[in-house]
Every structure is written in structure tokens, then in C-alpha cells.
Amino acid sequence: MASKMVLPLFFVFSVLASFSHALVQDFCVADLKSPDTPAGFPCKKVSLVTEKDFVYSGLGVAGNTSNLIKAAVTPAFTAQFPGVNGLGISLARLDLAVGGVIPFHTHPAASEVLLVVEGTICAGFVSSANTVYFKTLNKGDIMVFPQGLLHFQINSGKGGALGFVSFSSANPGLQILDFALFGNELPTDIVAKTTFLDPATIKKLKGVLGGSG
Amino acid sequence: MASKMVLPLFFVFSVLASFSHALVQDFCVADLKSPDTPAGFPCKKVSLVTEKDFVYSGLGVAGNTSNLIKAAVTPAFTAQFPGVNGLGISLARLDLAVGGVIPFHTHPAASEVLLVVEGTICAGFVSSANTVYFKTLNKGDIMVFPQGLLHFQINSGKGGALGFVSFSSANPGLQILDFALFGNELPTDIVAKTTFLDPATIKKLKGVLGGSG
Amino acid sequence: MASKMVLPLFFVFSVLASFSHALVQDFCVADLKSPDTPAGFPCKKVSLVTEKDFVYSGLGVAGNTSNLIKAAVTPAFTAQFPGVNGLGISLARLDLAVGGVIPFHTHPAASEVLLVVEGTICAGFVSSANTVYFKTLNKGDIMVFPQGLLHFQINSGKGGALGFVSFSSANPGLQILDFALFGNELPTDIVAKTTFLDPATIKKLKGVLGGSG
Amino acid sequence: MASKMVLPLFFVFSVLASFSHALVQDFCVADLKSPDTPAGFPCKKVSLVTEKDFVYSGLGVAGNTSNLIKAAVTPAFTAQFPGVNGLGISLARLDLAVGGVIPFHTHPAASEVLLVVEGTICAGFVSSANTVYFKTLNKGDIMVFPQGLLHFQINSGKGGALGFVSFSSANPGLQILDFALFGNELPTDIVAKTTFLDPATIKKLKGVLGGSG
Amino acid sequence: MASKMVLPLFFVFSVLASFSHALVQDFCVADLKSPDTPAGFPCKKVSLVTEKDFVYSGLGVAGNTSNLIKAAVTPAFTAQFPGVNGLGISLARLDLAVGGVIPFHTHPAASEVLLVVEGTICAGFVSSANTVYFKTLNKGDIMVFPQGLLHFQINSGKGGALGFVSFSSANPGLQILDFALFGNELPTDIVAKTTFLDPATIKKLKGVLGGSG
Amino acid sequence: MASKMVLPLFFVFSVLASFSHALVQDFCVADLKSPDTPAGFPCKKVSLVTEKDFVYSGLGVAGNTSNLIKAAVTPAFTAQFPGVNGLGISLARLDLAVGGVIPFHTHPAASEVLLVVEGTICAGFVSSANTVYFKTLNKGDIMVFPQGLLHFQINSGKGGALGFVSFSSANPGLQILDFALFGNELPTDIVAKTTFLDPATIKKLKGVLGGSG
User: Where does the record locate the signal sequence feature (chains A, B, C, D, E, F) (predicted)?
Assistant: First the structure.
């Protein structure tokens, strides 16, 4: 009798499930070749999606910290990891060599949680009330940085440090303060008026950071 | 004097209303031929939209319950009813013959309200705390099933039952537990490890539900 | 050996599930005695929640249509059905006697889908572009009314009509045009200036609808 | 030594900033030629965006108030000002000559704040509970009109009045009551049934406002 | 016969409207004495709400620009104007004397539109890609600043300037760069490491801005 | 002259910043003693908030895997880590001993990204279309699991495995399939009807998992 059931049951579930196939928007793997929208990229066709779209291996490789800040950020945002498109989440890897620093920056569109996997990191943020909240984090500690606020991370240990940061957006954005102020063509006198720094300091940093004006 | 008013008043309102025409996004009838986005399908041109886009008659027809579960689900989601695209709401029809059952399932993207129109339905859901909330519903009763939780509906009366379910999304998704576990190629040993069911049971259900592996 | 497994397995799942108990916000049954918030009412304690909080029987009773509009609306919003609080969905029942009318109204905070369960209803809405979309609906038909737009329902059949409406909010609001214009103390001259109706018409309707001024 | 730093520091920040370039969705200037989506228009390519996309001068010009309502509304919504697409904000200018009136209307998709820049405006709205909140506003006063509710503005001073309104949406919509009721082809008998106005009044206003039926 | 209609019609609408009264959450005037929530403050009782809750006159008064930046910001956020609570919109007034500057700052939780009412303002913002978008704005011009990005406003004319800014949040937040970096107790060496400024510059600005460490 | 500037500049910024203090809702550290709301817990007073509220050390300790599934989940959700309240993000730690398994489960309110920090994990999810996406992940790999879908993680390596999961909600919920089906008092005949499992299997698992009925 069980064998008699097989076909009808299969049929039933096919009926029940048939509209699922047509409707699936459980996910929306980004078609990066199409123009973006305010809610994210249009979706790749479901029939072309494979398990590879949901996995990313780029964070397994240490970033190059042979640079002045002795640090590197490796993102897994929509552009690198199209599977997170529309899902409100993304990750990045932080490598900090001895003395490494991630300078003051903001993410305009996301809150962040830092997880320390190796080493010791001094991290902090400044609130709208200009209160500073900062603390030295050890392996296994996590710290949250609320959306849009200036924050930093410094390797405060004797060896290298490794962290992973999670964001509450597939596309959190990143505005590095020094680069925003000095790494473009905004005229020195405007920077001076709007930062209270003297023109000489500004011009020096513009030179270092590739800005002009 | 009234006739003198006609032109100016008409003119005024034309001015007032002119920008409305260009801006209308009161609704966004889905253009199902375009690729989906995380917020729904692109909109059909307003000039092509008619009252028919906002009406759907497919729920007026009973689903075929001549199957093992003696039940049928007829959806009016974006794919069937493009007028709800972007509006955060959709409906479906439930037909349950005597003994009919809608097995355990979830809607990943929506809460649901069931309205019993005919008959008696025993319905319930399980919370994250694993508490079961279930109750026998009579004609006119409504029950809410919070987003993403496992729930079921059983015809517990002596005749047929008819219900309509509303969702808090134009595209609520549907994951039927048995089909998700047994209706695909997920290897039996993985199913066994992740469900605590024995391989024989799994293989039997895979056979019934069209799965393999 | 199976008996040996019982305790450890139970223990495991207890561990896995223990944090669920503390965290459960699968739902948030409204505590209507607390002050509302922009996101809905504070939640009733989970330990006090029962299956009754998720079921409402008030829509099973026909509304009283012995009135001038020969119609009645029976809501199941947060205030009547606290189980929908925070879940983005609610329902209402429409009873329309022969000749019954639900006059022009809006829901400021929700889109609506009407399901006709008995009879024939002529329903329509007006877009921001002032286009009217209206259609006669028969049993089983559904029609969507996008958020915030003026819409109406008229019993256009020879017998009574019964409909159920679903909303994309637990608290959709309801602004009935005539009542908004004429059922309060807004001075007649202001109503006249802002509606182009003549004062006599306004005063008459104010009298009928309980307004003054 | 400072000169030695230049290249590496520039290199560092280039690395840090390189993924920003690819990911930027700080903004999404509307490509108005593409079809709209429920979340707004697709984005213009970042490489084509200039500062002009974020500035609009159309509100600097007074609207033409030589009309019956002696008032004009000049919008800066997505269609006029594509830079606000996806950013949840837009503006409009209100010009009211002596005796000018913005008749009862709603914005289905946004709350509004009115700022009086010149003159005196009597403004008000009606809640779902049919309570009227209205007040005379002077230069510098602001008033908020919650989403989707009927509201009006009247020049109640002896000279002209100028206001600017802000909306909580890039595309707030606008439904002017009289135009919605009388400026289209909705049959007079339906308007009569759904507004309690008599057919003669309706036909007269239809004539004035360009409606028929 | 009309007189016979009066009572029933009034009765009808009372029935229709009765549930409105209980359900009204068209608005949620902030009860600032209660603790805030992630969605805004709990609501003042509707019975205590008056038209005064929806109007604010504080922006009618010029801010005091007798200070070093020759500028003043006067907010109308939830704390000053409780009527906007939960409505996703707020305003502020900018007064800029000759030479006045609103230094670089961000709003972590809102996009902003600036309207120039008097004078000439040079305004700009920096994107995540470090591109600067800036432009000189004249009376009547508006400019949008996307959420979370660094931006500034400078009086670039020969007389005073007056602007009003609108935000896409009732509580946009405000982080003034100089104050965030130098107006608190963040140790100088941490500021130096995270900004590339030299300690002497930092200590000088800390002194000026009231910071220590 | 610089010393003359000190007071006015400090004064200026105090003025600019003064309203920030009153308005700060950059964050909303949960006051767990107050009743929850649909948007999260009410906020702890800002004056009582310290840097400790934004840091959590509980994920630095390995979970106890001496149990049948040889695995442990350690959450850092709002209940454990009140600093994430309202910020749309949270984390958890996964410890999997050799042979360890996180059985099929869903998070009703969040998407998840898994980061493998040690070992090898076979992870997968099932879509609404019943397609299985699963893959073996090595150290440094990340995988995304879209909201509300059934998913699992299995230690497929020869040693222990360690992972961290991030969620797009401060309170993602957790519904473990076996516990939901068998760890409560839902009657065996209902479970049988709604899962197609035979009563003997159900009763056995109920015994193991602490359920009854």
C-alpha cells in the first residue's frame, strides 16, 4: 500500500511546492553587471545560482601590512561577495602587524561588531555627545561600533593581531577620515576653515595622501 | 460667473496635479519579465496599468485536494498577482478535504494570519523557545503565525474546510519541512546527522517525496 | 544504549535551547496597558502568553448593518487582537447589506487586500495621478488598495455581501473622508475654502455627522 | 624622512580605499530613464555623477499663483531632483498669494514638516480619530503633518505667504481631495454613494475640475 | 425624511469610527520623560495631545553667531519638537554671519537637505570614494547630503546667510569632527596614531576645544 | 591672541554640541529589566553607559561539547550583549568537536554569515524551492545563510572546528528543528500528520528530547 502512496504524495508536494519555484526570493545574489538600486543589485537568475555564490574564500588570506599603517582591511561586501546582496549583512578581515593602526573612519550605512581572533587590539568610538568609549580587547572579545560614528582600531599588543568585523548591511560604506579630508582636491582653504587645522599641516597631509588643491 | 471660474480652476489643479503624474509611485505593478531586486520587481509603466492589475480571481477556484495530504494551497503572491509587488501584503487560499493537512512549514519572510471561512481547522506553531501554541479554530476565527516559525494546519472537522491566509509580504516564501528535508539530493547521511532520524526512514521519505541521495 | 543517550542528548539540546528562552522575541503580544511606541506596544511577558493571544473570534460575528450606510466594519487590529502587535499584519470584516456602502476612506499606514466571501462588491481607489481604478468583484476575487489612497466599497449585488480585508500593518489607521471633513469642529469657512463645497452643504453634513462649527 | 613616508602612506590608503571605489552606494542618483522599483530608481553610474546631481535650483523661483486657489506647489521630488532618490527625503515650495489655499490633500507615503518663511499660514490636519489639529503659523514656525492624513494650508495673513515643506520620502505622493473625487471619470452615482454629496454638487465640481461621468 | 436620517447616519459613523479612537497611532508625540527605545520615545496619551504638540516656534529665532565660527545651529529634533517622534523627519536652522562656517560633521542616522533662505553658502560632502562634491548655493537652492558622510557649510557671501536643513530622521544625530577628535579625553597619542596629526597640533586643539589627555 | 580665542571657540562648540547631549540615540544599550518592544528593549540612560556596555568577552570561552551532538553554540545576542540592542547585528560562537553537528535549524529574524576560524565545516541550507546549497568550508571561508531557511553545520574534518556566526539582527531567534518537533507537548498524532513520520519514531525522539504527548 505504501507503494500506492508514492505517486500521489509526490504529486501533492509538487503541487504545494510548484509556486515556490516561481517565487523564490529567499535570496538575491547580486548581478553586478546591472545598475545598482537603492535596495541593492538586481538578482542573478535562480537557475544560475550555485553553492559557490554563497561562499567566499577571500578572507582566508592575510592582507598586506607592509605599509605605513602596518594594517590591511579585506572586505567581503556585495562587490566581493554577491551572495550577501539584499541580506543586510557583510564581513571584513582586519590584519594589524605590530604597531598597526586602522585610522579613524566611519561606515555611513552600518553598525559593526569586531571580533578579535589573534592578539590585542585597542578599539574605540566617539558618540554624538563626543564621549569616547574605548577599551583594550583580547582574543575572543567582541566590541560593537554603532552606525555612522567615528571609530578606530590599534594593535596594542606585542605581536600581530587579527580581527574580523561584521556589518549590519551588505554594503556598509567606508569613509576614512584622513583620506576624506586630505586625499582629494578639496581646496586647502576650505579644509582649513572646516577643520581648524592650519594650511601647512593640511598641505603636508595632502602631499602624503595624494590630494591636491 | 461660475463659467468664468471653470478655466482658471481647472488650470490651477492641473498645475497642482501635474507633478503627480510624473511622480506616481503609489504602486509598482511587477514587470515579471525584468530581473527581481531585493525590494521586489521593477514597475510596469503606469500608462499600461489598468484596474485588472489590482484584481485577481485565482483564489475563487478550489484547489485540487485529490492527493495524499487531501489539501491544496493556492497562492496570490507577486508571481500570480503582480499588483501586490512592493506593497508588503499577499494572500493564499487553503482547501482542506476531510482529513486534509498542511504539513509543518515556514514562511521565511512574512508573518501570516489564517481566516477560517468554512469548517474546523486545528492550527499551531512552535516558538523559538519550543513552546507549542495550537488551537482548534471555527468558522470566522483568525490566528496569527509569527514570521519564520514552523506551523501547521489540520482539518479537524467532519466536512471540508476552507481558509484564506494573509501575509505581511508580497513574497513570503514557503519552506515545507518534509520537502526541504527529503525532496532533494541532500545525502542521506547528512540528513541523518542533522535530524537524528535513522537512514531507513530518510530513504523511505526520499523515495516518497522525490528526493535522492 | 539508547537509554544511555537520553540524558546527554536532552542535556545538549537544553544547552542549545537555553538561550532561546531568554531571547524569544518571535512575537510581541501587546501589553495594551503600557504606553504605545512608534514600533507598537511593549510586549506581554512570554510566560503569560497562551495560544489564546494568537487567536481572535470577533470576526466570526456579522456587524450591525441597520444603519444608513447599511454596512459595518469590524476590525482585528492591535487594540482588538494584541497578538498581531509588531508583526506587520491585521484583518477586518466588512458586512454590506443590500445597498450597503463603505464610503471613501484611507488607511494612512497600510496597503489593503479585499477578499470577497459572499456577494458582489464594486470597489475602487484613486491614485495620486487622480486615475480611478474600479471593478466589480465577485465571490473569491481579491483586490489590492495601495497604501494611503482614497478607496471605497459598494455592495453592487442583489443580496448581502461579506468581505475580509487584510492590512500590511498591525495598526493601519482609518480616515473616513466624510467624518474627517464634517464630523468635527473644523469651522465651516475653513472646510469651504479647502474643499470647494458651499457652506450650506457643509453645514448640512456637519449636522448629519455630528460636527459643529 | 617625511619624504620617505610619502609613497608608502599613499600606497596604504590606496589599498584601504580601493574597495570603497567599487562599493560606493553612499547615494543612488536616479536614472529616470530606467524603470522604477519599489525602493526607487536604479542608480546613475557613479562615474557620471557630479555635484550638480546633488543641487536643485527649481525652488528658488516663485510658483504662479494667478489661479483660483491663488497658490502654487513646486516639488523637488525624485522626478525633479534625482539626487534624493533612495535617501528618504524631499522638499517642495509653497507660494500662497493673498487668500491663497492649498486644499485638503494627503501624501500617501510621507510625513511632512511645513516651515513658514514669509507671511502667516493657517494649517491643520485631521487624525484617524477625526480630531482636527489646526493653528495659525507665523514666520519661522514649523508644523508637522503625520503620514497619510488629510491636511490643508491657508494664507491667513494680509500679504503673500511663502513656505517650504519637507517630506520623509523621496517620493511622497500627493492626493488632492477635490481632484481625486471630481477630476476623473468616476461615475457621479458612485461619488454620491461614497461621499454623501448630492449629484448636482458633484456634477458641478466635475465640470470645474475637468472630470466627467 | 432627511431629519429621520440624522440619527442613524450619525450612529453609523460612530460605529465606523469608534475603533479609530482606540487605535490611533497616526502619530506618537514623544513622552520625553519615559526611557527612549530603538524606534523612538513612548507616546504621550492621545487625550493629552493638542495642536501645540505639532507646532514649534524655536526656529523663528536667529541663533547667536557671536562666536569663533560665526555660526549657530538650532535644532528641532525629537528633544525640542516631540511631535516628530517616530515620523522620520526633523529640521534645524543654520545662521551664518559673515565668514561663518559649520565645520565638517556627520549625521550618523539621516540624510540632509539644505535650503538657502538668505545669502550664499558654499557647501559640500565627501563620498566613501573620497570624491568631494561641493558647490556655491544661492537663495532658493537646495542641496542633499547623503546619510553618514562628512559635510560642511561656509558662508561664502558678503552678508549673513540663513539656511534650514531637513533630515530623514526625527533624531539624526550630529558628530562634529573637531569636537569628536579634540573635545574629549581621548589620549593624545591615540589621536595621533589614528589621525596622522602631530601631538603638538592635537594638544593645541584639545586646549581650544575643551579636551584633555 | 590665541589665548583670547580659547573661550569663544570652546563656547561655540559647546553651543553646537549642546543639543547632541540631549538627543543622543547613536546607540540604545538594552535595559533588560524593562519590557521588550517590537523594536527592541528600552534604552539604559546614557549617563550610566560605559565602554563595558559595548564589549563582551563571553565568546572567548569554548562551549562545552561533551554532549551527544559534540557541539555548542554560545550566543552574544541582546540578552547577553545589551550593547547591540537596536543596532541590527549580533554574533555567536560555534564549537564543534570531532564529529560535532549543529542540527537543522532556522533563525526566524535574521540572515547569518559563518566564518570558519579553525578546522573544516560542511555547511548548507535549503531554499524555498527545496534546492540544497552545501559546501565544505575551510579555515577563513565564509558562507551566508539567507533569513529563515533551514540550515546545518557539520564538523567534517579530523580535528575540532571553531566558527563564529554573525546575524543581521540583535535578536535573530533560533528554532532547532528536532527540538521544535519533539521537545514539547505537541501530541504525537499531530506530529505524525504534519511530518509524515511514524508515531514510533516520534515517540522515541520525544523521549530523547524531553518532549511528551
Answer: 1-22
Residues of B in contact with C143 (CB under 8 A): 54-56
Å from C41 to nearest chain F CA? 6
How many beta-carbon pairs below 8 A join chains E and F?
Answer: 96
The CATH-assigned architecture of domain C58-173 is Sandwich (2.60)
Query: Is some CB atom of chain F closer than 8 A to the CB atom of C50?
Result: no
Domain span(s) for CATH 2.60.120.10 in chain F:
14-173
Of F60, F134, F137, the CB nearest to A141: F60
Contact: D168, E27; criterion CB under 8 Å = no
In angstroms, the CA F130 to CA B176 distance is 8
B vs D, Cβ pairs < 8 A, gives: 100
Contact A86 B38 (CB under 8 A): yes
Contact between residue D174 and residue D150 where contact means Cβ atoms under 8 Å apart: no
CA F25 – CA E86 distance, rounded (Å):
13
Partner residue facing D31 (CB), from A35, A72, A175: A35
Q: Which helix (H) or strand (E) holds F73?
A: strand F71-76
- Residues F23-79 pLDDT 10s: 447 999 999 999 999 999 999 999 999 999 999 999 999 999 999 899 999 999 999
Q: Which residue has the cell 482547501?
A: B95
Residues of chain C with CATH 2.60.120.10: 58-173
pLDDT at E213: 87
- Does chain E reach chain F with at least 3 CB pairs under 8 Å? yes
Per the CB < 8 A criterion, the answer to whether E116 and E161 are in contact is yes
Which CATH number applies to F14-173? 2.60.120.10
Residues annotated in a binding site of B for Mn(2+): 105, 107, 112, 151
Q: What are phi and psi of F62, to 5 degrees?
A: -65, 140
Look at residue E22 and tell me whether its pLDDT is greater than 80.
no
Average pLDDT, chain C: 90
pLDDT of residue B12: 47
Smallest CA–CA distance from C211 into chain D, residue = D130
Gap between the Cα atoms of C43 and F32, Å rounded: 13
Share of chain A above pLDDT 90, in %: 85
**pLDDT of chain B along its 213 residues, tens only?**
333 333 444 444 444 444 444 444 799 999 999 999 999 999 999 999 999 999 999 999 999 999 989 999 999 999 999 999 999 999 999 999 999 999 999 999 999 999 999 999 999 999 999 999 999 999 999 999 999 999 999 999 999 999 999 999 999 999 999 999 999 999 999 999 999 999 999 999 999 899 998
Q: Where in chain E is the domain with CATH 2.60.120.10?
A: 26-173
ipTM score:
0.91
Please check whether residue B86 touches D, CB under 8 A: yes
Q: Which fold is adopted by the domain E26-173?
A: Jelly Rolls (2.60.120)
8 A C-beta contact, residue F41 and residue F30: yes
DSSP string, D15-76: HHHHHHHHH--S---B-TTSPPBTTBPPBPPGGG--GGGGEE-GGGS-----STT-EEEEEE
Mutate which: D37, D64, D175, vs B, most B CBs within 10 A: D37
Domain limits, CATH 2.60.120.10, in chain D: 68-173
Distance, in angstroms, between E93 CA and closest chain A CA? 18
Contact A96, A153 (CB under 8 A): yes
Q: Please indicate if the annotation marks E21 as binding a ligand.
A: no
The answer to whether the beta carbons of residues A157 and A120 sit under 8 Å apart is yes
- Is domain D68-173 given the CATH code 2.60.120.10 in the classification? yes
What is the identity of the amino acid at B138? Answer: N
- A144 at interface of E, judged by CB pairs closer than 8 A: no
Average pLDDT over residues E149-163: 98
